[in-house]
Amino acid sequence: MHVQLIDIVIIALYGAVVLGIGFALRGRMSNSGEFLLAGRSIPAWTAGLAFLSANLGAQEMIGMAASGAKYGILTSHFYWVGAIPAMVFVGVFMMPFYYGSRARSVPEYLKLRFDEKTRAFNALTFAVMTVFSSGISMYAMGALLSLLLGWNIHACIIISALVVLCYIALGGLTSAIYNEVLQFFLIVFGFAPVVYLGLREIGGWDGLRARVPESFVHSWTGMGSAATNPLGVEWFGLLMGLGFVLSFGYWCTDFLVVQRAMAADSMNAARRTPLIAAMPKMLFPFLVIVPGIIALGLTLHPQPGAAPLLPAAAGGGYDYNMALPMMMARYYPAGLLGLGLTALLASFMSGMAGNVTAFNTVWTYDLYQSYLVRGASDAHYLNVGRVTTVVGTLISVATAYAAMRFNNIMDMLQLVFSFVNAPLFATFLLGMFWRRTTGHAAFWGLVGGTVAAALHYELTGVAGGGSLVSKIAVLHVYRSDMAQNFWGAIWAWTICFVATIAVSLITRPKRDEELKGLVVGLTPAPSEGHLPWYLKPLILGVVVLACTAALNLLFW
Amino acid sequence: MGIDLRKPIGILFLAYGALLAVYGVVRPQPVLDLNINLIWGVVMAIFGAIMLALAWRKPNAIKR
Asked: pTM for the whole thing?
Protein backbone atom coordinates (compact mmCIF):
# COMPACT_ATOMS: atom_id res chain seq x y z
CA MET A 1 0.00 0.00 0.00
CA HIS A 2 1.17 3.46 -0.81
CA VAL A 3 0.33 6.28 1.54
CA GLN A 4 0.21 9.80 0.13
CA LEU A 5 0.00 13.23 1.67
CA ILE A 6 -3.80 13.35 1.66
CA ASP A 7 -3.95 10.08 3.61
CA ILE A 8 -1.61 11.48 6.24
CA VAL A 9 -3.76 14.63 6.46
CA ILE A 10 -6.87 12.50 7.07
CA ILE A 11 -5.17 10.46 9.78
CA ALA A 12 -3.79 13.60 11.42
CA LEU A 13 -7.23 15.26 11.43
CA TYR A 14 -8.58 12.25 13.28
CA GLY A 15 -5.81 12.49 15.87
CA ALA A 16 -6.55 16.19 16.38
CA VAL A 17 -10.29 15.67 16.94
CA VAL A 18 -9.73 12.76 19.33
CA LEU A 19 -7.33 14.80 21.44
CA GLY A 20 -9.61 17.82 21.16
CA ILE A 21 -12.45 15.89 22.79
CA GLY A 22 -10.11 15.01 25.66
CA PHE A 23 -9.13 18.67 26.09
CA ALA A 24 -12.72 19.90 25.94
CA LEU A 25 -13.63 17.58 28.82
CA ARG A 26 -10.64 18.19 31.06
CA GLY A 27 -12.30 20.92 33.16
CA ARG A 28 -15.11 18.58 34.06
CA MET A 29 -13.02 16.02 35.93
CA SER A 30 -13.52 17.35 39.45
CA ASN A 31 -13.95 14.07 41.33
CA SER A 32 -13.19 10.39 40.96
CA GLY A 33 -16.78 9.59 39.99
CA GLU A 34 -16.54 11.94 37.01
CA PHE A 35 -13.23 10.47 35.95
CA LEU A 36 -13.89 6.76 36.49
CA LEU A 37 -17.68 6.49 36.11
CA ALA A 38 -18.37 9.41 33.73
CA GLY A 39 -20.54 10.86 36.51
CA ARG A 40 -23.33 8.51 35.39
CA SER A 41 -24.39 11.16 32.92
CA ILE A 42 -24.16 9.53 29.49
CA PRO A 43 -27.31 9.47 27.31
CA ALA A 44 -28.51 6.06 26.13
CA TRP A 45 -27.54 6.28 22.45
CA THR A 46 -24.03 7.49 23.32
CA ALA A 47 -23.54 4.73 25.88
CA GLY A 48 -24.98 2.20 23.42
CA LEU A 49 -22.61 3.02 20.57
CA ALA A 50 -19.69 3.10 23.04
CA PHE A 51 -20.78 -0.31 24.38
CA LEU A 52 -20.46 -1.67 20.87
CA SER A 53 -17.29 0.21 20.00
CA ALA A 54 -15.34 -0.83 23.09
CA ASN A 55 -15.64 -4.40 21.82
CA LEU A 56 -14.64 -3.51 18.24
CA GLY A 57 -10.90 -3.75 18.58
CA ALA A 58 -8.80 -3.90 15.42
CA GLN A 59 -8.28 -7.61 16.10
CA GLU A 60 -12.02 -8.06 15.98
CA MET A 61 -12.27 -6.36 12.58
CA ILE A 62 -9.27 -8.14 11.05
CA GLY A 63 -10.13 -11.42 12.77
CA MET A 64 -13.78 -11.51 11.72
CA ALA A 65 -12.87 -10.75 8.10
CA ALA A 66 -10.28 -13.54 8.35
CA SER A 67 -12.92 -15.95 9.68
CA GLY A 68 -15.21 -14.85 6.87
CA ALA A 69 -12.56 -15.92 4.37
CA LYS A 70 -11.90 -19.16 6.26
CA TYR A 71 -15.43 -20.26 7.23
CA GLY A 72 -17.77 -18.05 5.21
CA ILE A 73 -21.10 -16.83 6.56
CA LEU A 74 -20.84 -19.40 9.38
CA THR A 75 -18.82 -16.67 11.09
CA SER A 76 -22.10 -14.83 11.61
CA HIS A 77 -22.75 -17.24 14.50
CA PHE A 78 -20.32 -15.12 16.50
CA TYR A 79 -22.80 -12.26 16.13
CA TRP A 80 -26.29 -13.72 15.79
CA VAL A 81 -25.74 -16.56 18.26
CA GLY A 82 -22.67 -15.44 20.19
CA ALA A 83 -23.59 -11.84 20.95
CA ILE A 84 -27.14 -10.58 20.32
CA PRO A 85 -29.09 -12.86 22.71
CA ALA A 86 -26.66 -12.10 25.55
CA MET A 87 -26.82 -8.37 24.84
CA VAL A 88 -30.60 -8.49 25.08
CA PHE A 89 -30.41 -10.51 28.31
CA VAL A 90 -28.01 -8.15 30.08
CA GLY A 91 -30.11 -5.13 29.14
CA VAL A 92 -33.52 -6.50 29.99
CA PHE A 93 -32.78 -8.75 32.97
CA MET A 94 -29.41 -7.97 34.55
CA MET A 95 -29.02 -4.21 34.30
CA PRO A 96 -31.64 -3.55 37.04
CA PHE A 97 -29.22 -5.19 39.49
CA TYR A 98 -25.98 -3.73 38.14
CA TYR A 99 -27.33 -0.20 37.86
CA GLY A 100 -29.81 -0.40 40.72
CA SER A 101 -27.20 -1.59 43.22
CA ARG A 102 -25.16 1.61 42.60
CA ALA A 103 -22.07 -0.61 42.44
CA ARG A 104 -19.23 1.20 40.70
CA SER A 105 -17.93 -1.88 38.92
CA VAL A 106 -18.76 -5.51 38.26
CA PRO A 107 -16.32 -6.74 40.95
CA GLU A 108 -17.94 -4.32 43.38
CA TYR A 109 -21.30 -5.84 42.59
CA LEU A 110 -19.81 -9.22 43.55
CA LYS A 111 -18.61 -7.71 46.83
CA LEU A 112 -22.09 -6.37 47.62
CA ARG A 113 -23.85 -9.54 46.56
CA PHE A 114 -21.37 -12.11 47.86
CA ASP A 115 -18.19 -11.33 49.74
CA GLU A 116 -14.70 -9.90 49.68
CA LYS A 117 -12.89 -12.94 48.30
CA THR A 118 -15.21 -13.32 45.32
CA ARG A 119 -14.63 -9.68 44.47
CA ALA A 120 -10.87 -10.02 44.88
CA PHE A 121 -10.76 -13.07 42.60
CA ASN A 122 -12.76 -11.32 39.88
CA ALA A 123 -11.03 -7.93 40.21
CA LEU A 124 -7.51 -9.37 40.11
CA THR A 125 -8.05 -11.68 37.15
CA PHE A 126 -9.93 -8.95 35.29
CA ALA A 127 -7.25 -6.32 35.91
CA VAL A 128 -4.44 -8.56 34.71
CA MET A 129 -6.47 -9.71 31.73
CA THR A 130 -7.35 -6.21 30.50
CA VAL A 131 -3.83 -4.77 30.50
CA PHE A 132 -2.54 -7.89 28.81
CA SER A 133 -5.15 -7.98 26.11
CA SER A 134 -4.67 -4.30 25.35
CA GLY A 135 -0.93 -4.98 25.04
CA ILE A 136 -1.49 -7.90 22.73
CA SER A 137 -3.79 -5.91 20.46
CA MET A 138 -1.31 -3.05 20.48
CA TYR A 139 1.33 -5.43 19.19
CA ALA A 140 -1.00 -6.85 16.55
CA MET A 141 -1.80 -3.34 15.36
CA GLY A 142 1.83 -2.25 15.15
CA ALA A 143 2.79 -5.45 13.34
CA LEU A 144 -0.02 -4.96 10.80
CA LEU A 145 0.83 -1.32 10.06
CA SER A 146 4.51 -2.06 9.69
CA LEU A 147 3.73 -4.95 7.36
CA LEU A 148 1.26 -2.99 5.21
CA LEU A 149 2.86 0.42 5.11
CA GLY A 150 6.43 -0.20 6.14
CA TRP A 151 5.93 2.06 9.13
CA ASN A 152 8.19 1.65 12.12
CA ILE A 153 6.52 -0.76 14.52
CA HIS A 154 7.89 1.02 17.60
CA ALA A 155 6.59 4.37 16.41
CA CYS A 156 3.16 2.85 15.69
CA ILE A 157 2.88 1.33 19.15
CA ILE A 158 4.16 4.32 21.06
CA ILE A 159 2.32 7.07 19.18
CA SER A 160 -1.07 5.34 19.26
CA ALA A 161 -0.60 4.47 22.96
CA LEU A 162 0.28 8.11 23.68
CA VAL A 163 -2.85 9.41 21.94
CA VAL A 164 -5.10 7.04 23.90
CA LEU A 165 -3.24 7.87 27.12
CA CYS A 166 -3.72 11.62 26.56
CA TYR A 167 -7.40 11.59 25.87
CA ILE A 168 -8.18 9.28 28.79
CA ALA A 169 -5.90 11.05 31.27
CA LEU A 170 -7.59 14.34 30.30
CA GLY A 171 -11.22 13.35 30.14
CA GLY A 172 -11.48 9.96 31.84
CA LEU A 173 -14.27 7.57 31.00
CA THR A 174 -16.40 10.32 29.43
CA SER A 175 -13.65 11.05 26.95
CA ALA A 176 -13.22 7.35 26.17
CA ILE A 177 -16.97 6.95 25.61
CA TYR A 178 -17.31 10.07 23.45
CA ASN A 179 -14.37 8.97 21.35
CA GLU A 180 -15.79 5.47 21.04
CA VAL A 181 -18.92 6.92 19.45
CA LEU A 182 -16.82 8.90 16.98
CA GLN A 183 -14.77 5.76 16.33
CA PHE A 184 -17.93 3.76 15.69
CA PHE A 185 -18.96 6.08 12.85
CA LEU A 186 -15.43 6.10 11.44
CA ILE A 187 -15.32 2.29 11.46
CA VAL A 188 -18.63 2.10 9.60
CA PHE A 189 -17.76 4.77 7.04
CA GLY A 190 -14.19 3.56 6.68
CA PHE A 191 -15.03 -0.07 5.88
CA ALA A 192 -18.37 0.23 4.08
CA PRO A 193 -16.86 1.10 0.64
CA VAL A 194 -14.96 -2.23 0.70
CA VAL A 195 -18.26 -4.09 0.85
CA TYR A 196 -19.88 -1.97 -1.84
CA LEU A 197 -16.95 -2.11 -4.26
CA GLY A 198 -16.30 -5.79 -3.57
CA LEU A 199 -19.88 -6.80 -4.31
CA ARG A 200 -19.89 -4.57 -7.38
CA GLU A 201 -16.80 -6.21 -8.80
CA ILE A 202 -17.84 -9.77 -8.05
CA GLY A 203 -21.41 -9.39 -9.31
CA GLY A 204 -23.41 -9.04 -6.11
CA TRP A 205 -24.42 -11.83 -3.75
CA ASP A 206 -25.14 -14.23 -6.64
CA GLY A 207 -21.73 -13.57 -8.15
CA LEU A 208 -20.19 -14.26 -4.75
CA ARG A 209 -22.07 -17.55 -4.35
CA ALA A 210 -20.74 -18.69 -7.71
CA ARG A 211 -17.13 -18.27 -6.56
CA VAL A 212 -17.06 -19.85 -3.10
CA PRO A 213 -18.01 -23.34 -1.87
CA GLU A 214 -21.74 -23.71 -1.21
CA SER A 215 -21.16 -24.20 2.56
CA PHE A 216 -19.75 -20.67 2.75
CA VAL A 217 -23.11 -19.01 2.13
CA HIS A 218 -25.21 -21.04 4.58
CA SER A 219 -25.07 -20.45 8.31
CA TRP A 220 -27.02 -23.47 9.57
CA THR A 221 -27.31 -26.06 6.80
CA GLY A 222 -24.15 -27.96 7.80
CA MET A 223 -24.49 -27.60 11.56
CA GLY A 224 -26.21 -30.97 12.12
CA SER A 225 -22.90 -32.68 12.79
CA ALA A 226 -19.33 -31.60 13.48
CA ALA A 227 -18.21 -33.50 10.38
CA THR A 228 -20.33 -31.52 7.93
CA ASN A 229 -19.18 -27.94 8.53
CA PRO A 230 -15.78 -26.22 8.53
CA LEU A 231 -16.10 -25.06 12.17
CA GLY A 232 -15.86 -28.71 13.27
CA VAL A 233 -18.58 -28.30 15.89
CA GLU A 234 -22.20 -29.42 15.93
CA TRP A 235 -25.28 -27.30 16.68
CA PHE A 236 -25.50 -28.23 20.36
CA GLY A 237 -21.91 -27.31 21.15
CA LEU A 238 -22.38 -24.10 19.20
CA LEU A 239 -25.62 -23.06 20.90
CA MET A 240 -24.59 -24.03 24.42
CA GLY A 241 -20.86 -23.32 24.31
CA LEU A 242 -20.76 -20.18 22.20
CA GLY A 243 -24.37 -19.00 22.33
CA PHE A 244 -24.90 -19.50 26.03
CA VAL A 245 -21.79 -19.96 28.18
CA LEU A 246 -19.14 -17.91 26.39
CA SER A 247 -21.39 -15.23 25.00
CA PHE A 248 -23.33 -14.58 28.21
CA GLY A 249 -20.08 -14.84 30.16
CA TYR A 250 -18.61 -12.02 28.11
CA TRP A 251 -21.48 -9.64 27.35
CA CYS A 252 -23.21 -9.97 30.73
CA THR A 253 -20.25 -9.97 33.11
CA ASP A 254 -17.24 -8.37 31.45
CA PHE A 255 -16.71 -4.98 33.00
CA LEU A 256 -15.16 -3.67 29.78
CA VAL A 257 -18.59 -3.53 28.15
CA VAL A 258 -20.86 -3.39 31.23
CA GLN A 259 -19.03 -0.24 32.37
CA ARG A 260 -20.48 1.66 29.41
CA ALA A 261 -24.02 0.82 30.48
CA MET A 262 -23.26 1.62 34.13
CA ALA A 263 -22.21 5.12 33.03
CA ALA A 264 -25.65 5.83 31.56
CA ASP A 265 -27.72 8.68 32.98
CA SER A 266 -30.70 6.66 34.20
CA MET A 267 -31.86 3.13 34.86
CA ASN A 268 -33.81 3.09 31.64
CA ALA A 269 -30.85 4.41 29.65
CA ALA A 270 -28.60 1.77 31.22
CA ARG A 271 -31.03 -0.98 30.23
CA ARG A 272 -31.36 0.33 26.69
CA THR A 273 -27.57 0.66 26.25
CA PRO A 274 -26.90 -2.97 25.23
CA LEU A 275 -30.10 -3.03 23.17
CA ILE A 276 -29.09 0.05 21.19
CA ALA A 277 -25.68 -1.58 20.70
CA ALA A 278 -27.33 -4.79 19.47
CA MET A 279 -29.01 -3.08 16.53
CA PRO A 280 -25.84 -2.15 14.60
CA LYS A 281 -24.11 -5.25 15.98
CA MET A 282 -26.50 -7.58 14.17
CA LEU A 283 -25.69 -5.86 10.87
CA PHE A 284 -21.93 -5.99 11.40
CA PRO A 285 -21.53 -9.34 9.63
CA PHE A 286 -22.25 -7.48 6.40
CA LEU A 287 -19.51 -4.99 7.15
CA VAL A 288 -16.77 -7.35 8.36
CA ILE A 289 -17.56 -10.91 7.29
CA VAL A 290 -18.77 -10.29 3.73
CA PRO A 291 -15.45 -8.63 2.70
CA GLY A 292 -13.68 -11.76 3.95
CA ILE A 293 -15.89 -14.01 1.80
CA ILE A 294 -15.35 -11.74 -1.22
CA ALA A 295 -11.60 -11.93 -0.60
CA LEU A 296 -11.82 -15.73 -0.71
CA GLY A 297 -13.94 -15.55 -3.88
CA LEU A 298 -11.27 -13.44 -5.56
CA THR A 299 -8.64 -15.92 -4.38
CA LEU A 300 -10.30 -19.14 -5.55
CA HIS A 301 -11.50 -17.58 -8.81
CA PRO A 302 -9.42 -14.49 -9.54
CA GLN A 303 -10.52 -11.99 -12.16
CA PRO A 304 -9.13 -12.79 -15.65
CA GLY A 305 -5.45 -12.01 -15.73
CA ALA A 306 -5.24 -11.26 -12.00
CA ALA A 307 -3.37 -13.16 -9.29
CA PRO A 308 -5.25 -14.72 -6.34
CA LEU A 309 -6.06 -11.98 -3.83
CA LEU A 310 -4.93 -13.72 -0.65
CA PRO A 311 -1.29 -14.75 -0.26
CA ALA A 312 -0.71 -18.46 0.43
CA ALA A 313 0.18 -19.28 4.01
CA ALA A 314 3.31 -21.19 4.97
CA GLY A 315 1.51 -24.23 6.36
CA GLY A 316 -1.01 -24.54 3.50
CA GLY A 317 -4.22 -22.62 2.97
CA TYR A 318 -4.16 -18.83 2.76
CA ASP A 319 -3.06 -15.98 4.97
CA TYR A 320 -6.60 -15.17 6.05
CA ASN A 321 -5.59 -12.30 8.30
CA MET A 322 -4.70 -10.35 5.18
CA ALA A 323 -8.29 -10.49 3.90
CA LEU A 324 -9.41 -7.04 5.05
CA PRO A 325 -6.08 -5.25 4.37
CA MET A 326 -5.84 -6.81 0.89
CA MET A 327 -9.38 -5.72 0.07
CA MET A 328 -8.56 -2.17 1.15
CA ALA A 329 -5.37 -2.20 -0.91
CA ARG A 330 -7.35 -3.44 -3.92
CA TYR A 331 -10.09 -0.83 -3.92
CA TYR A 332 -8.96 2.24 -1.99
CA PRO A 333 -7.29 5.04 -3.93
CA ALA A 334 -5.28 7.73 -2.15
CA GLY A 335 -7.76 9.66 -0.04
CA LEU A 336 -10.13 6.84 0.70
CA LEU A 337 -7.12 4.83 1.84
CA GLY A 338 -6.47 7.43 4.52
CA LEU A 339 -10.05 6.98 5.70
CA GLY A 340 -9.67 3.19 5.74
CA LEU A 341 -6.47 3.41 7.77
CA THR A 342 -8.18 5.87 10.11
CA ALA A 343 -10.94 3.31 10.60
CA LEU A 344 -8.34 0.68 11.48
CA LEU A 345 -6.65 3.05 13.93
CA ALA A 346 -10.03 4.04 15.37
CA SER A 347 -10.98 0.43 15.99
CA PHE A 348 -7.65 -0.20 17.61
CA MET A 349 -7.93 2.86 19.85
CA SER A 350 -11.53 2.19 20.88
CA GLY A 351 -10.56 -1.34 21.92
CA MET A 352 -7.53 -0.15 23.82
CA ALA A 353 -9.37 2.73 25.52
CA GLY A 354 -12.04 0.26 26.62
CA ASN A 355 -9.39 -1.84 28.32
CA VAL A 356 -7.61 1.10 29.91
CA THR A 357 -10.75 2.72 31.36
CA ALA A 358 -12.07 -0.57 32.74
CA PHE A 359 -8.67 -1.30 34.26
CA ASN A 360 -8.58 2.19 35.84
CA THR A 361 -11.87 1.75 37.64
CA VAL A 362 -11.22 -1.78 38.84
CA TRP A 363 -7.70 -0.96 40.01
CA THR A 364 -8.66 2.29 41.75
CA TYR A 365 -11.90 1.20 43.45
CA ASP A 366 -11.68 -2.55 43.76
CA LEU A 367 -8.01 -3.08 44.47
CA TYR A 368 -6.36 0.15 45.61
CA GLN A 369 -9.24 1.59 47.65
CA SER A 370 -10.33 -1.80 48.96
CA TYR A 371 -7.04 -3.37 49.91
CA LEU A 372 -4.20 -0.84 49.79
CA VAL A 373 -5.31 2.62 50.96
CA ARG A 374 -8.75 2.85 52.47
CA GLY A 375 -10.58 5.96 53.59
CA ALA A 376 -8.49 8.56 51.78
CA SER A 377 -10.10 11.68 50.31
CA ASP A 378 -11.84 11.53 46.95
CA ALA A 379 -9.20 13.85 45.47
CA HIS A 380 -6.65 11.19 46.35
CA TYR A 381 -8.54 8.53 44.41
CA LEU A 382 -9.00 10.90 41.47
CA ASN A 383 -5.21 11.26 41.34
CA VAL A 384 -4.77 7.52 41.65
CA GLY A 385 -7.13 7.12 38.71
CA ARG A 386 -5.02 9.46 36.58
CA VAL A 387 -1.76 7.81 37.58
CA THR A 388 -3.31 4.41 36.87
CA THR A 389 -4.07 5.55 33.32
CA VAL A 390 -0.36 6.16 32.81
CA VAL A 391 0.79 3.01 34.58
CA GLY A 392 -1.83 0.83 32.88
CA THR A 393 -0.78 2.15 29.48
CA LEU A 394 2.89 1.55 30.31
CA ILE A 395 2.19 -2.04 31.33
CA SER A 396 0.24 -2.50 28.10
CA VAL A 397 3.16 -1.20 26.06
CA ALA A 398 5.50 -3.51 27.99
CA THR A 399 3.12 -6.39 27.22
CA ALA A 400 3.16 -5.45 23.56
CA TYR A 401 6.94 -5.81 23.55
CA ALA A 402 6.72 -9.06 25.49
CA ALA A 403 4.25 -10.33 22.88
CA MET A 404 6.76 -9.43 20.20
CA ARG A 405 9.42 -11.64 21.79
CA PHE A 406 7.60 -14.41 23.65
CA ASN A 407 4.64 -15.50 21.58
CA ASN A 408 4.17 -18.73 23.49
CA ILE A 409 3.83 -17.05 26.87
CA MET A 410 1.09 -14.83 25.47
CA ASP A 411 -0.80 -17.81 24.07
CA MET A 412 -0.43 -19.52 27.45
CA LEU A 413 -1.85 -16.50 29.26
CA GLN A 414 -4.80 -16.24 26.94
CA LEU A 415 -5.48 -19.90 27.55
CA VAL A 416 -5.43 -19.40 31.31
CA PHE A 417 -7.73 -16.39 31.02
CA SER A 418 -10.18 -18.45 29.02
CA PHE A 419 -10.30 -20.94 31.94
CA VAL A 420 -11.08 -18.13 34.39
CA ASN A 421 -13.77 -16.63 32.16
CA ALA A 422 -15.64 -19.80 31.28
CA PRO A 423 -17.62 -20.33 34.49
CA LEU A 424 -18.37 -16.65 35.29
CA PHE A 425 -21.92 -16.50 34.01
CA ALA A 426 -23.11 -19.33 36.29
CA THR A 427 -22.08 -17.26 39.31
CA PHE A 428 -23.88 -14.13 38.13
CA LEU A 429 -26.98 -16.01 37.06
CA LEU A 430 -27.34 -17.71 40.44
CA GLY A 431 -26.33 -14.55 42.30
CA MET A 432 -28.97 -12.42 40.63
CA PHE A 433 -31.80 -14.91 40.36
CA TRP A 434 -31.45 -17.19 43.39
CA ARG A 435 -31.57 -15.47 46.76
CA ARG A 436 -30.11 -18.47 48.59
CA THR A 437 -26.70 -18.30 46.80
CA THR A 438 -23.93 -17.61 49.31
CA GLY A 439 -20.52 -15.95 49.12
CA HIS A 440 -18.58 -19.11 49.87
CA ALA A 441 -20.54 -20.89 47.18
CA ALA A 442 -19.83 -18.19 44.60
CA PHE A 443 -16.11 -18.26 45.31
CA TRP A 444 -15.68 -22.03 45.35
CA GLY A 445 -17.98 -22.40 42.37
CA LEU A 446 -15.73 -20.07 40.38
CA VAL A 447 -12.60 -21.89 41.50
CA GLY A 448 -14.19 -25.25 40.66
CA GLY A 449 -15.32 -24.05 37.24
CA THR A 450 -11.87 -22.66 36.44
CA VAL A 451 -10.21 -25.93 37.48
CA ALA A 452 -12.76 -27.86 35.42
CA ALA A 453 -11.91 -25.78 32.35
CA ALA A 454 -8.19 -26.44 32.85
CA LEU A 455 -8.76 -30.16 33.42
CA HIS A 456 -10.93 -30.40 30.33
CA TYR A 457 -8.12 -28.87 28.32
CA GLU A 458 -5.64 -31.31 29.87
CA LEU A 459 -7.80 -34.34 29.11
CA THR A 460 -8.88 -33.67 25.53
CA GLY A 461 -7.16 -33.13 22.22
CA VAL A 462 -7.82 -31.67 18.81
CA ALA A 463 -7.53 -33.72 15.64
CA GLY A 464 -4.31 -32.80 13.88
CA GLY A 465 -3.58 -29.97 16.32
CA GLY A 466 -0.65 -29.35 18.61
CA SER A 467 -0.87 -28.27 22.22
CA LEU A 468 0.73 -25.56 24.30
CA VAL A 469 1.28 -27.89 27.24
CA SER A 470 1.68 -31.61 27.63
CA LYS A 471 -1.54 -33.50 28.27
CA ILE A 472 -2.30 -35.74 31.23
CA ALA A 473 -4.30 -38.02 29.00
CA VAL A 474 -6.41 -37.66 25.90
CA LEU A 475 -9.89 -39.03 26.58
CA HIS A 476 -11.64 -37.35 23.68
CA VAL A 477 -10.50 -35.82 20.41
CA TYR A 478 -12.41 -32.83 19.03
CA ARG A 479 -12.53 -31.92 15.37
CA SER A 480 -11.36 -28.35 15.93
CA ASP A 481 -9.93 -25.95 18.52
CA MET A 482 -13.27 -24.19 18.48
CA ALA A 483 -15.15 -27.35 19.46
CA GLN A 484 -12.68 -27.98 22.29
CA ASN A 485 -13.07 -24.41 23.47
CA PHE A 486 -16.90 -24.49 23.38
CA TRP A 487 -17.15 -27.83 25.16
CA GLY A 488 -14.57 -26.78 27.76
CA ALA A 489 -16.76 -23.78 28.51
CA ILE A 490 -19.85 -25.96 28.81
CA TRP A 491 -18.07 -28.20 31.33
CA ALA A 492 -16.71 -25.26 33.33
CA TRP A 493 -20.12 -23.60 33.48
CA THR A 494 -21.89 -26.78 34.54
CA ILE A 495 -19.36 -27.58 37.28
CA CYS A 496 -19.54 -24.02 38.58
CA PHE A 497 -23.34 -24.05 38.49
CA VAL A 498 -23.64 -27.35 40.35
CA ALA A 499 -20.88 -26.57 42.85
CA THR A 500 -22.37 -23.16 43.65
CA ILE A 501 -25.77 -24.68 44.35
CA ALA A 502 -24.27 -27.47 46.44
CA VAL A 503 -22.14 -25.18 48.60
CA SER A 504 -25.02 -22.69 48.95
CA LEU A 505 -27.18 -25.38 50.49
CA ILE A 506 -24.66 -26.07 53.27
CA THR A 507 -23.58 -22.49 54.03
CA ARG A 508 -25.45 -19.60 55.62
CA PRO A 509 -27.09 -17.14 53.18
CA LYS A 510 -27.11 -13.37 53.63
CA ARG A 511 -30.16 -11.84 55.27
CA ASP A 512 -32.79 -10.38 52.94
CA GLU A 513 -32.09 -6.81 54.12
CA GLU A 514 -28.52 -7.10 52.90
CA LEU A 515 -29.63 -8.22 49.47
CA LYS A 516 -31.95 -5.34 48.61
CA GLY A 517 -31.31 -4.11 45.07
CA LEU A 518 -29.01 -7.04 44.33
CA VAL A 519 -31.28 -10.03 43.81
CA VAL A 520 -34.53 -10.66 42.01
CA GLY A 521 -37.55 -10.41 44.30
CA LEU A 522 -35.80 -7.98 46.65
CA THR A 523 -35.31 -5.33 43.97
CA PRO A 524 -38.15 -3.10 42.85
CA ALA A 525 -38.89 -3.58 39.15
CA PRO A 526 -37.79 -0.48 37.20
CA SER A 527 -40.83 1.63 36.37
CA GLU A 528 -41.39 2.06 32.68
CA GLY A 529 -45.14 2.53 32.44
CA HIS A 530 -44.80 6.17 31.48
CA LEU A 531 -42.46 5.47 28.57
CA PRO A 532 -43.49 5.23 24.92
CA TRP A 533 -43.16 1.68 23.57
CA TYR A 534 -39.96 2.33 21.65
CA LEU A 535 -38.16 3.19 24.88
CA LYS A 536 -39.24 0.07 26.75
CA PRO A 537 -36.35 -2.39 27.13
CA LEU A 538 -38.47 -5.52 26.91
CA ILE A 539 -40.15 -4.45 23.67
CA LEU A 540 -36.82 -3.36 22.17
CA GLY A 541 -35.33 -6.70 23.20
CA VAL A 542 -38.09 -8.65 21.47
CA VAL A 543 -37.69 -6.56 18.31
CA VAL A 544 -33.91 -7.17 18.28
CA LEU A 545 -34.35 -10.92 18.77
CA ALA A 546 -36.99 -11.12 16.03
CA CYS A 547 -34.69 -9.34 13.57
CA THR A 548 -31.83 -11.68 14.52
CA ALA A 549 -34.00 -14.71 13.97
CA ALA A 550 -35.01 -13.35 10.57
CA LEU A 551 -31.34 -12.87 9.61
CA ASN A 552 -30.59 -16.48 10.59
CA LEU A 553 -33.44 -17.72 8.42
CA LEU A 554 -32.34 -15.54 5.53
CA PHE A 555 -28.87 -17.11 5.49
CA TRP A 556 -29.93 -20.57 6.65
CA MET B 1 -21.59 20.91 31.52
CA GLY B 2 -20.53 18.64 28.74
CA ILE B 3 -19.97 18.87 25.06
CA ASP B 4 -22.53 18.07 22.42
CA LEU B 5 -20.94 15.05 20.81
CA ARG B 6 -22.76 15.65 17.55
CA LYS B 7 -20.65 18.74 16.91
CA PRO B 8 -17.17 17.16 16.75
CA ILE B 9 -18.59 14.22 14.78
CA GLY B 10 -20.35 16.60 12.38
CA ILE B 11 -17.28 18.80 11.94
CA LEU B 12 -14.92 15.87 11.32
CA PHE B 13 -17.22 14.18 8.81
CA LEU B 14 -17.93 17.43 7.00
CA ALA B 15 -14.20 18.09 6.77
CA TYR B 16 -13.47 14.54 5.58
CA GLY B 17 -16.29 14.69 3.07
CA ALA B 18 -15.16 18.01 1.62
CA LEU B 19 -11.55 16.86 1.49
CA LEU B 20 -12.36 13.60 -0.30
CA ALA B 21 -14.84 15.20 -2.72
CA VAL B 22 -12.46 18.00 -3.73
CA TYR B 23 -9.60 15.53 -4.07
CA GLY B 24 -11.83 13.31 -6.18
CA VAL B 25 -12.60 16.20 -8.54
CA VAL B 26 -9.06 17.58 -8.74
CA ARG B 27 -7.37 14.21 -9.10
CA PRO B 28 -9.88 11.58 -10.29
CA GLN B 29 -8.81 7.98 -9.60
CA PRO B 30 -11.59 5.76 -10.95
CA VAL B 31 -12.15 2.42 -9.19
CA LEU B 32 -14.43 0.04 -11.15
CA ASP B 33 -15.44 3.10 -13.24
CA LEU B 34 -16.53 5.02 -10.15
CA ASN B 35 -14.98 8.19 -8.78
CA ILE B 36 -15.22 6.68 -5.33
CA ASN B 37 -13.48 9.56 -3.55
CA LEU B 38 -16.05 12.02 -4.89
CA ILE B 39 -19.04 9.75 -4.18
CA TRP B 40 -18.00 8.79 -0.67
CA GLY B 41 -16.89 12.34 0.08
CA VAL B 42 -20.38 13.62 -0.72
CA VAL B 43 -21.99 10.87 1.39
CA MET B 44 -19.76 11.68 4.37
CA ALA B 45 -20.33 15.43 4.02
CA ILE B 46 -24.09 14.89 4.04
CA PHE B 47 -23.81 12.75 7.19
CA GLY B 48 -21.66 15.41 8.86
CA ALA B 49 -24.10 18.15 7.88
CA ILE B 50 -27.03 16.19 9.32
CA MET B 51 -25.16 15.76 12.63
CA LEU B 52 -24.42 19.48 12.79
CA ALA B 53 -27.97 20.39 11.86
CA LEU B 54 -29.31 18.18 14.66
CA ALA B 55 -26.93 19.72 17.18
CA TRP B 56 -27.84 23.21 16.01
CA ARG B 57 -31.61 22.73 15.94
CA LYS B 58 -32.06 20.97 19.27
CA PRO B 59 -29.05 21.96 21.34
CA ASN B 60 -30.35 20.36 24.53
CA ALA B 61 -31.80 17.16 23.22
CA ILE B 62 -28.63 15.31 24.11
CA LYS B 63 -28.58 16.40 27.74
CA ARG B 64 -30.90 15.15 30.40
From this structure: 0.90
